[in-house]
Write a structure and sequence with these properties.
Helix content is 0%, strand content 62%.
Length: 120
Amino acid sequence: QVQLVESGGGLVQAGGSLRLSCAASGSIFSINSMGWYRQAPGKQRELVATITSGGSTNYADSVKGRFTISRDNAKKTVYLQGNNLKPEDTAVYYCNAGIRAYNLRYSDYWGQGTQVTVSS
């Protein structure tokens, strides 16, 4: 059984910062790409940032220069540092990872989501 557990969401004022963490656990053989997505009320889920196992990153244009994604492969954890947060960053943030389990089955996993609310 593989799980992704997020933490670090909350309420922050505009211009503030927040750091999200997502730890993978279970029968994990290897982790490929990891990433963060978000979904605001009434909107579709959208990509925020991704990072490969080698450390290559990709960001949505709306967060470039403000958000930083990183990962600790030894801890099987991905982080999202958000600075200069804006009210439009308010959303439920979901962690995603491509994981190969010990039975060699490869699957896409999602965390349960963590709420980030930015007040103006």
